[in-house]
Design a protein that fits this description.
Helix 1 packs across helix 6 and helix 3 packs parallel to helix 5. The chain has one domain: Rossmann fold. A 6-stranded parallel β-sheet has the order 3-2-1-4-5-6, with helices on both faces. Strands 7-9 form a two-stranded parallel sheet. The chain is 31% helix and 18% strand. By secondary structure, it is an alpha/beta fold.
């Protein structure tokens, strides 16, 4: 329309941009015309070479408060990979910095796994409980991850008054995109039984969540839209859209 001013492109910060999930999110965000700021450790900057000249990179540890303060300045949304590295409160430090420094009203979307629960109403399959027990046993000997730190990070997000969403991913696999995953509020919903999502589609859901206010203060557990459980719930047709396919409780 003549005389109508174009809306400025959304500015998005991706915390953990150099990882597999992070790079997929960068691609999805750029495909939407968003301006992208990526945060990653200095030694991982080279992993972002394919985006050279198209994104701004702020190198540094994602739990470094000054790094996050600079990276999220002026951003409309922040996509954060909450990976529980080591024993130095990496997840909590990252989450708290994002909560503290993102501008008021910004959309904050965090990634984690199904093991995170917001209200205690999730019903976990025995295999997932076994995996967590084994992981905890191994990391007591070799402390390369801290599951409890990720749990605490999400607790802080849930308790905040920001416009947050915590996306809980199923087991992930590589492959071509199948489309936007489906979700439910609780693990244990039959729609989630397949417990499989393409990593590229996990990233797609994260980026899509930025513009869906119905996901504010939700912790969706997701599964691939073409998995057998999702198709069974949708009557054999691949579900469309981001609305939840089912609720429990």
């Amino acid at each position: 329309m003549p005389g109508k001013r174009a809306m400025p492109a959304m500015k998005v910060c991706i915390v953990g941009a150099s990882g597999k999930l992070g790079r997929y999110m960068v691609r999805h965000a750029l495909a939407r015309g968003y301006r992208v700021v990526g945060v990653c450790r200095a030694r991982s900057v080279g992993k972002l070479d394919e985006f050279k000249g198209r994104i701004e990179i702020v190198p540094g540890a994602t739990n470094d408060r000054d790094v996050i303060r600079r990276a999220v300045a002026g951003c409309d949304g922040v996509l954060t990979v909450l990976f529980p590295w080591g024993r130095h409160h990496y997840s909590t430090g990252t989450a708290q910095a994002v909560l503290d420094f993102a501008r008021p009203g910004a959309r904050l979307v965090f990634s984690c796994g199904w093991h995170i629960t917001r209200d205690g109403q999730d019903v976990y399959p025995p295999s997932l409980k076994t995996e967590e027990r084994v992981a905890r046993w191994i990391t007591r000997i070799v402390p390369f991850v801290d599951i409890d730190d990720q749990i605490e990070a999400c607790r802080r997000v849930f308790a905040s008054d920001t416009r947050w969403t915590v996306v809980r991913g199923s087991d992930l696999e590589e492959g071509e995109s199948e489309g936007l995953p489906v979700w439910s509020r609780h693990v244990g919903d039959p729609v989630l039984t397949s417990n499989r999502t393409r990593r590229v589609d996990f990233a797609l859901f994260m980026v899509e969540a930025l513009t869906h206010d119905e996901l504010v203060h939700e912790s969706p557990a997701i599964v691939g839209c073409r998995t057998s459980s999702a198709l069974a719930h949708a009557g054999g047709m691949a579900p469309q859209g981001i609305a939840p396919r089912a609720h429990r409780g």
